[in-house]
Amino acid sequence: MALFLFIPMAVISWIYRHELGMRALGIYWGLWALGLIATLLSAVHQGFFVGFECLLTVAMLVQLGVNPIVPRW
Fold first, then answer.
1. Closest residue by Cα to residue 35 from 63, 62, 54
2. Taking the model in full, what pTM does it have?
3. Lower Cβ count inside 10 Å, N or C end of the chain?
């Protein structure tokens, strides 16, 4: 359950790999791995890791300047 945001991060990393660069991708995935290890080794609830994954995914999109069009009802 805590790894479900792995897929959006992987897709964003693949689609925008040239715009982000290897250094940024290494930093984002290194932070993800450290967050996963810290969550697995400590008694922290997995929801904190899910929130951390959301934060990393949003940070990637903000760095890229992706501005989705949200339909208004």
1. 54
2. 0.79
3. C
Q: How far apart are CA 18 and CA 25, in angstroms?
A: 10
Are the C-beta atoms of 39 and 49 separated by less than 8 Å?
A: yes
Tokens 């940024």 -> residue: 24
Nearby residues of 14 by Cβ (< 8 Å), 6 or more positions away: none
Q: What is the pLDDT of residue 4?
A: 72
Copy the structure tokens of residue 14. 């693949």
Q: b/e for 29-66, b at 16 or more Cβ within 10 A? A: eeebeebbeebeeeeeeeeebbebbeebbeebeeeeee
* Integer Cα distance of 14 and 21 in angstroms: 11
